[in-house]
Write a structure and sequence with these properties.
The chain has helices spanning 8-17, 60-70, 81-84, 137-140, 151-166, 272-282, 299-319, 368-381, 390-408, 459-480, 493-508, 515-530, 535-546; strands spanning 28-31, 38-46, 85-92, 99-107, 110-121, 126-132, 174-185, 188-199, 205-212, 218-223, 227-233, 239-247, 250-252, 254-255, 262-266, 287-288, 290-291, 295-296, 331-335, 344-346, 351-353, 413-414, 429-430, 438-439, 442-446, 482-484, 487-489. The chain has 550 residues and is of the alpha+beta class. A hairpin with a 5-residue loop joins strand 11 and strand 12 (239-247). The longest helix is centred in the C-terminal third of the chain and has 22 residues, at 459-480. The protein binds [(2S)-2-sulfanyl-3-phenylpropanoyl]-GLY-(5-phenylproline) (TI3), zinc ion and calcium ion (CA). The site of [(2S)-2-sulfanyl-3-phenylpropanoyl]-GLY-(5-phenylproline) has 12 residues, from strand 20, helix 8 and helix 10.
Length: 550
């Protein structure tokens, strides 16, 4: 026995804790508030010699149980420690020779969920550390430990609950398995079946359900999917970080941390019309995009995933909206739609991105404002639901441009990042100066910036991508101010502007709303938020006067 000169604190520790080798300066103990039992004990403890007299070499499990016996008052337990603890794992540390045992506390043979302990034993059979949580005798001795329902009943209950949540599960990745646990729900122990189930379709999940074994009720559930941050290079060669999921040893582009998830697929250059059909009718999105490491090498996919998360966060932070349906709907994107397809779209179910021909466009997911634009189409579908032609259609496009520009933050151009890679500074559309961009329906002119210049033909569903510019210009004037066709507008900034348009879209407008209703909805929204006589309300009227909308 190695002895030291005891400090008074060590002497006290011995007086309280009984006999064993104690090194004063190294001893530490922490007691948890919940049960008043140790969270950790650091000390050096050897098994008393009388117990080691027999010829047989003692096992590590025996040492651990003797140690627990020695600490049983602190652990607030009675009886044989063999009935309270089961060793579930032993790992021997090659360098130090120390064995690390993992134990689970039991009552009447039923494990207590979360009540686990680790005990470290050196190669000369000294216990050096205890960590964990122990539920004292008095909290567990009267618990009912015989189930009234069986495992199969619990499993079918959970199967139903998962399908209610994510839809029909055709095949589980591994059969759901029920295990009996005592589960502490807000301070009360319940005898439960923990059912774990793994799914990849229709939604990825590693589901954990606790089913009360006395009545079959689900008392707790969560999705313990393994989320990790991955990396990649975007379309513009910039470094991106985004959330993915680990499945066995491969990673795939599913972010389970936002709403019901963000998931990106590869459409394998399928024709846009065919892909659209398969997507809408069969729920086909393309191939899963996987990687063996945390680096993803498809720039279009990297940006689709990262930008969808950015737009999700924008809606959540700016409008407290949980995805496009405000109920966390999953954001699904497919990249590589078509062969050099020069467009992007929301098809009512998901986002579709072309790769561009490389000349006029590069892959559309590379531009944050494009993703903002597309997801705003989804928001519009779930709110004002503006019909996609003529004036309501132009407003539909305009909301996508306005909020897309807001997500992108510091410019008033649309698609500048993916448009004509060889030409600097140009864009598909400009909210600030629509007339500076050639009108695709009439290349002699720029986009209209006043109601008197409304395109009245039938191309492009009645000019939805062209007439949108009239409302775009009003939004720009409202935010930044300026004089337009001799009408002066005082700017109220982006923050107030986005709130006014979002409110108009989600609270006032309807499928057939036209420009004049848009003006009134914006006024009404400004009054709601800022008051009748506010500058914001006055500025809305000035902005619509300036573009000739009454
Ligand atoms: S829906 C949206 C997608 C997008 C957003 C694309 C932002 C780029 C940037 C969109 O505006 N698409 C454009 C679009 O569909 N069209 C217009 C119509 C005709 C006009 C257009 C303008 C396309 C300029 C290409 C270039 C179309 O292609 O049918
Ligand atoms: Zn659009
Ligand atoms: Ca932009």
């Amino acid at each position: 026995m190695k002895k030291k000169i005891f400090s008074s604190a060590a002497a006290l520790a011995i007086a309280l804790g009984g006999l064993s080798t104690v090194h004063a300066d190294e001893n530490q103990i922490k007691i948890n508030d919940k049960y008043n039992t140790p969270s950790y004990i650091i000390e050096k403890w050897e098994m008393p010699p009388k117990l080691t007299l027999s010829k047989k070499k003692v096992t590590e499990e025996e040492i651990a149980l003797s140690y627990l016996e020695y600490q049983k008052d602190k652990l607030k337990l009675k009886g044989n420690m063999k009935n309270h603890f089961k060793v579930v794992d032993t790992q021997k540390d090659k360098e130090t020779g120390t064995s690390h045992l993992r134990l689970v506390e039991h009552q009447n043979g039923v494990p207590i969920y979360g009540s686990e302990q680790t005990i470290s034993i050196t190669d000369n059979q000294e216990v050096t550390a205890f960590f964990g949580e122990v539920v004292p005798q008095e909290h567990k001795e009267n618990l009912d430990t015989s189930p009234s329902i069986d495992a199969a009943q619990a499993e079918s209950k959970v199967n139903q609950a998962i399908e209610d949540k994510i839809g029909e599960v055709k095949a589980y990745d591994a059969d759901p398995k029920a295990e009996l646990y005592l589960f502490d729900k807000e301070g009360d122990f319940h005898l439960t079946y923990l059912v774990k189930a793994s799914t990849s379709n229709p939604a990825p999940g590693y589901w954990h359900y606790f089913v009360d074994a006395s009545n079959g009720e689900i008392i707790e559930s969560f999705n313990a999917i393994d989320n990790v941050t991955a990396f990649g290079e975007g379309v513009l060669g910039d470094k991106k970080k985004f959330e993915v999921t680990k499945d066995n040893n491969s990673y795939y582009l599913y972010d389970g941390t936002r709403g019901d998830g963000i998931h990106t697929f590869n459409a394998l250059n399928l024709d846009p019309n065919l892909f659209n059909l398969l997507s809408q009718i069969f729920g086909y999105h393309g191939d899963e995009i996987t990687s063996n490491h945390k680096f993803f090498s498809d720039p279009a996919a990297v940006d689709a995933q990262a930008h969808a998360a950015d737009v999700y966060d924008y809606y959540e932070e700016t409008f407290n909206r949980d995805s496009f349906d405000d109920e966390g709907a999953r954001l699904i994107s497919s990249v590589h739609v078509g062969d050099g397809w020069n467009n992007a779209a929301w098809n009512g179910v998901q986002m579709m991105y072309g790769d561009g021909d490389g000349d006029t466009f590069i892959p559309f997911s590379g531009a944050l404002d494009v993703i903002g634009h597309e997801l705003t189409h989804a928001v519009t579908d779930r709110s004002a639901d503006l019909v996609y032609q003529y004036e309501p259609g132009a407003l539909n496009e305009s909301f996508s441009d306005i909020l897309g520009a807001m997500v992108d933050r510091d410019d008033w151009l649309m698609g500048e990042d993916i448009y004509t890679p060889d030409i600097e500074g140009d864009a598909l559309r400009s909210l600030e100066d629509p007339a500076s961009i050639p009108n695709p329906l009439n290349p002699e002119e720029g986009y209209p910036d006043h109601y008197s210049k409304l395109y009245t033909g039938e191309l492009d569903n009645g000019g939805v991508h062209v007439n949108s510019s009239i409302n775009n210009k009003a939004a720009h004037l409202l935010s930044e101010g300026g004089t337009h066709y001799d009408v002066e507008v005082e700017g109220i900034g982006r923050k107030a502007t986005e709130q006014i348009y979002y409110r108009a879209l989600t609270k006032y407008l309807t499928p057939t709303s036209d420009f004049s209703m848009m003006r009134q909805a914006a006024i009404q929204s400004a009054i709601d938020i800022y008051g009748e006589n506010s500058q914001q309300t006055i500025s809305v009227k000035q902005a619509y006067d300036a573009v000739g909308v009454k």
